[in-house]
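Before a colleague's protein record goes any further, I have to sign it off. What it holds is a sequence and that sequence's fold in token form. Would you go through it and say whether the fold makes sense for this chain? The record follows directly below this note.
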Amino acid sequence: MKKICLCFLLISNFLIAQDLKNAPYKNSELSVDERVENLISLMNLDEKIGQLTTPLGWKMYSKKAGTKASLSELYKEEIKNRHIGGLWGVLRADPWTQRTLETGLHPKEAAKITNAIQKYAIENSRLGIPLLLEEEAMHGHMAVGTTVFPTAIGQASTWNTKLIKEMAQAIALEIRAQGSNTAYGPIIDIAREPRWSRVEETFGEDSYLIAQMGKSIVKGFQGDNESDLKTKKHVAATLKHFAAYGVSEGGHNGAAVHIGERDLFQNYMYPVKEAVDSGILSVMTAYSSIDGVPSTAHKSLLTNTLREKWGFDGFVISDLASIEGLLGDHHIVDTEEDAAAVAMNAGVDVDLGGNGFDDALLDAVKAGKVSEKRIDEAVKRILAVKFKLGLFEDPFTSEKEAEKLVRSEEHIELAREVARQSVTMLKNEDNLLPLSKELKRIAVIGSNADMQYNQLGDYTGPQSEDNIITALEGIQNKLPNTTIDYVKGTAVRDTTQTDIPAAVEAAKNAEVAIVILGGSSARDFKTEYLETGAATVSSKEDEILGDMESGEGFDRSTLNLMGKQMELLQAVVATGTPTVLVLIKGRPLLLNWPAENVPAILDVWYPGQEGGNAIADVLFGDFNPAGRLPVSVPKSLGQIPVYYNYWFPIRRDYVEHDAKPLFPFGYGLSYSEFEYSDLKLSTSGKGQNTKINISLKVSNISKIDGDEVVQLYIRDMLSSVLSPVKQLRAFERVSIKAGETKSLQFELLPKELSLFDAEMIQKVEAGEFKLMIGASSEDIKLETTFEIPETITISN
């Protein structure tokens, strides 16, 4: 009898295996929906919940200095016991992960490990489901040996969406070449709070500019068509952070957000909607709360708005440990089981970190707190993305191609071009810039003149010294026959490393002093980190303070240059030597004294690995700067928040100074001079088909070829609810040769003129609108008005 039962069992297992081998989900000729439906019908509850689990990836391989990397025992246990559906940051390297140049994975090794990870998952799981391998990617893939581009705030300063799309394509190619398939970006948080530690990760203060940059990242990552995802040149994009993360109370990272429903939808949700309409495949929740509801538990936004109203069909993933945060941070539940249930029922599909769902979610299902139908819904969304990426057909990559494609010469040159276009000239008194290449002696001074990691920004992997060009090195490369005296003078924060007399002496002996100051998001291996990866600002009296004063977890209570940097700058200026200030930093700082006393100022944010060459190109006239500020620069801390598109009424001045920023949104100078003329406007169509067609001419009236960033703003002259004093609604960076005139055309659609009325209905109200075109939000060159004859309701 036992022999008969054993034989029957063996035959049954064989038949099941045969059925799985020929299961419809393995047929690439079927539609994604058909394959998903078949696969999920074969899965048990444990396997389904496993698909919603994304643990920390760098723990899934073992490597010590001087040894080859191999799969860790932990990874094998995760596949066997938890049936995981993805990994986050397999290739991530930084002080938090403790992955260094020696213990992290270089591109060829990365491809080998990701191939091994996928092979093991497919061969050692019942259904052979490949993994989503998700990576940080906003200014380059956060891994060893990749290309480091300027951070997002610098990307936005280019005002060049085509260039940023090209950059995103390069990042996607590097990620996919190493075997990962999902990228975290774009970040669409609106930065109206400069004390907040993550301003550098944003595209600035304006929802329209953010939306345009965000769409460029989505298309660059994912391709123009869904079929592009299978070409192994593109990745699934993940929008973050949903929603309104960047304006937390007091600038505290992850703290409560206090905004009204109209402001939320008019501004903060606008770039999200644009990304959804662009086909983004994933959305990440935020650590913060909105009006008392944590983002990871916000059913009204995650389900009612994102899913039902906007039709988003990708998956929602929690930010790292934000599901557990419902219990430990927000205190809205009292058990892990309830935290999992609340997040899942609100609309969160996937747990980043692997500790929020898992057994807690399984218990919630068994207790009837979460339906298996809801589990199926979440799993289907994950599986659909895997099918769209072509992972079931071929999840592997070429080790040789990885070595060839990652950090290629083309990508290095692209990093330099993005950095050049991001440089914003804030002041150029008496045309001090560009500097002559015939100078015999130059002093290069400052905390950030020759600090590699200080110019790279947060979310950056460890770097080989040869990969990064500092400002000092860029200047040396540009002027090999000039005497260049370098004196650091002081550090960003620490005051024990200060030698101002040496800096003064170097400036006195030089024809020009280039002072390079600012901030830093450079992490080190001594920094302490929270579970989420954010840094902990130490209160210990360290002998030497690290430079880091920005980057996740480093919120500020002031916006002054830290340490003795201002004292250094003042001492150099006092020598009488012509002085150029270059700012390398991650957030707007108070620049009142430099703006009044330093003849030339360049703002380069964190310019990436080619930053030094880009700075030198601008300083010495090989590139004409045309960067524009994506944020307003305040005059004082008491002005905050200061942003250009506030609602009426017009702001009153303070007792101490006026209400205007020191440098306004959209501001930036050039070596060229431009003139605007011939503004023409016509209206066509009716209702939702209405179009406002605008044309104008821009002439370069100087003798230097250059780029101009033409900015179009509107104002609703009479509205039933408050509306902005002005609102960016189009822009174009255009190259114009000396003496040349170019014609530009813009088109406005009803949604760009709309507001949310008292009943929260999105509409364009009939009436007069003012059109303003210029070189910044304050430098308006041309203006006119137009009429919308009838109210237009916007259908979503």
The chain has a mean pLDDT of 95. The first helix runs from residue 2 to 21.
